[in-house]
From TrEMBL:
Classification via PANTHER family: CHLORAMPHENICOL EFFLUX PUMP RV0191, PURINE EFFLUX PUMP PBUE
Lineage: Bacteria, Bacillati, Bacillota, Bacilli, Bacillales
Domain Major facilitator superfamily (MFS) profile: 1-387
Residues passing through the membrane, by range: 12-32, 44-61, 73-93, 99-126, 169-187, 208-232, 244-262, 274-295, 301-323, 335-357, 363-382
Protein's recorded name: ACDE family multidrug resistance protein
Chief site of localization: membrane
Keywords: Cell membrane, Membrane, Transmembrane, Transmembrane helix, Transport
Cellular compartments annotated: Cell membrane
InterPro entries per the UniProt record, alphabetical: MFS, MFS_dom, MFS_Efflux_Transporters, MFS_trans_sf
Signal peptide range in chain numbering: none
Top-level taxon of origin: Bacteria
Amino acid sequence: MSGTYVSKIGIGSFTMIMVVGNGLFIPMMPAIQQDLQLTASQTSLLLSVFSFAGAIMIPLSSWLSNVFGRRKVIISCLVILTLGCVTSSLSGFTSHSNVAYMTILIGRILQGVGAGSAAPLGFILASELYRGTEQMKLFSLLEVINGVTKAVSPILGSLLVAYAWQLGFVWYLAIAIVALVSAITLLPQQSQTLSNHSTLSHGGLLHYWRWFVPGLTIGFVVMFLLYGLLFVTASDIQHTGQRGLFISLPLAILVVVSYLYGRTSNRSSKQLKETMIAGMSLLLVASCLACFGYLGFMYTVLSTCVVGGAAGILLPASSSSLAQFLPEELSERALTWLTTVRFLGVASGPVVFSIWMSEWQNHVFYLIGLTGISSQILLICWGKWFKKIQFEESNEF
């Protein structure tokens, strides 16, 4: 029993790698920018290249795992992640800012490749190796691990940067080594079997575009707004301790709301639609609050907290909608693409917001437009579809 529990913790370490790679380094960006004399765009690139590389590798790793086996892919990608951490750590041994910046940038790309490859495999392993109640418990454990990691990582990053920002890469290296050792010791025979769904074409997902497109849109917009506003918050607050606290607060709200959402009973299509509308309404409120960010950073913090609450609703709801209303044979592919799009939002948010920061009053209204368009996509795609599902549900009774 204890071996099984330790194995579950090992699987959980794979999924938290990507979360740590973002949350740990957000509070460190202002210090890195100051020490290396970087622009805001150059600084945001250190966050974005990690997420972009990870987003590219997420669907690719799913295919590689079907060909070579889960264990080989996980160990290989964690080795790449370890090399990326070592490379970034070497930036502390040079006094040339340009060399240090390029060293960090190359290391962050390698970290993104390794972390992105490992990120979806934890959930895939959970779905393949466990069934029924055990599977649901493991999914809950993975969400708890991810949620706690999101909230704690910025605080840890703030504590480390108080001594030296280079320690962040050393700490990430330690986490990567722990995950690598877990993969080698805990996965001797896991996932050698090929996925039964590897031969399915993308045409199956296109048939369910009314579910697929809104899910991808919501996933991108939520993560784009959340991590873009977190970058702005980190840039506005000078005190490292306060920076970690204010970055962790929206993520903690996300964790609490997601936990409360997970404790609710299975939702019908009507309840799911109402939940999505409530979440999108919160995003609109957050976008309106962000318009007043030029008056003081507390408006930005408040809007980020509201986005965190909306994310706690929309992220699990969009995942459950795909799992509930798509055929089982398409779920793995759909969740893989959903993870990819979410990380694209994480990657593009800091880059775009770093550009908008220079003329906040002129660009912030794009947030309202983006959120409004996303709401329209949801309502247009799901209008007739929900009526059809509700009719089918009523016939079952």
